[in-house]
Write a structure and sequence with these properties.
With about 425 residues, the protein is α/β, with parallel strands linked by helices. The protein has three domains: about 170 residues, Nitrogenase molybdenum iron protein domain (Rossmann fold, 3-Layer(aba) Sandwich); about 190 residues, Nitrogenase molybdenum iron protein domain (Rossmann fold), CATH 3.40.50.1980; about 35 residues, Single alpha-helices involved in coiled-coils or other helix-helix interfaces (Up-down Bundle). Helices cover about 45% and strands about 15% of the residues. It has a six-stranded parallel sheet with strand order 1-12-11-10-13-14, sandwiched between helices. A six-stranded mixed sheet has the order 2-7-6-5-8-9, sandwiched between helices. A three-stranded antiparallel sheet has the order 3-4-15. Strand 6, helix 7 and strand 7 form a beta-alpha-beta unit. Helix 5 crosses helix 7 and helix 10 packs across helix 11.
Length: about 425
Amino acid sequence: MKIYNYSELSAVEIDQLCKRELNDDEVVASRVENIISTVKNKGDQALLSYAAEFDKVVLNELFIGKEAIAALAKQIPSSVKSAIDQAYQNIYNFHQVQLKSEEKIETMPGVVCWREARAIEKVGLYIPGGSAVLPSTFLMLGIPAKIAGCKEIVVCSPPQKDGKINCYIAYVATLLGIEKIYLAGGAQAVAAMAFGTASIPQVYKIFGPGNRYVTAAKKQLQHVVAIDMPAGPSEVLIIADETANAAFVAADLLAQAEHGADSQSILVATSMPMISAVLQALETQLPILPRKDIAQKAIENSYVVQVNDLTEAMAFSNSYAPEHLILATRDFESLIPSISNAGSVFLGNLTPESAGDYASGTNHTLPTSGYAKAFSGVSVDTFLKKITFQQLTATGLANIGHTVEILASAEGLQAHKNAITIRLKELKN
């Protein structure tokens, strides 16, 4: 990992360090554009063809139904079942309290306004299943969708080599009451949910992380369907002072690195001794990982920033706007007010990012690529839309009417003014 000294970096250099652009982004975008066009025009035929090409499996149909899901779910090992059950409960507990109603407000006598939440009726969940099967993502998306009350939940996940789904995914489906899973992955799955095909229903909003092709498809289709957020390769930024445990820090960097070769694991540390200790720990832990080749490439694409103090560390972190931010520091609570840009934050040496990835309760579907500057992670709110209401009584109309007439006239919108005037005249009669 290359080491940079923060005090020696210019603003332009810091900005460049914080970019996540890859050399072949344009190539990926072009390929995705072609996939989207093909799915739009050929529907199921395109999906079956892409399954053979990308997933190396010949499908007879593009979904797996309730009975098959139940049969696969029974194959789950008891230890994994118990772990998923615990994660489900924690995630449910955290998200359930997010469903709140708002009070009616009388903005002036006789004028009452309020908002009510309504679930997005048709949502699409993309559950990755390429190099790693992610039942945790299914929990993170399915639970808030259920709590929100979405009427139709369309789930797409790449088929396994046997043309089915993993037993972990199947078990989560049974917990969520999902009776059909569509066997489509990548950009083609996103396109299918955006346009609809003979087999896969069209949805109003698409959720879920994925590789660069999935991300590119979501971005390109925003004029067709709403998306949860722009999201690219996964990332973590760890701020470490002299009290950090180097072995813990290295483990957290590698946990992020094993997601994919394009993941980023950034260390921001206040001392060279800590940096050296972390780098040594990486050399010890990396070789024994089953996904060491992937993690190694990600580490090679990552870097270290040495800072003089935690003020500089926070400044860099806010510029980078990490998906995951770990504060491996003594006085982490004092840093919380300084955090303005982050997807999810992990406090102290005993709080690894993997806790949030799986079972603490918070959602792990988070903004990446600097989008934490403007986007939040998935929550119950992400599956809702808010409708405003207002009601005027005779007193309210009399109180607000003159104000509206003046503003409408100022904007040259006579019909707007007349909608008030005609009512005020009626009240006087």
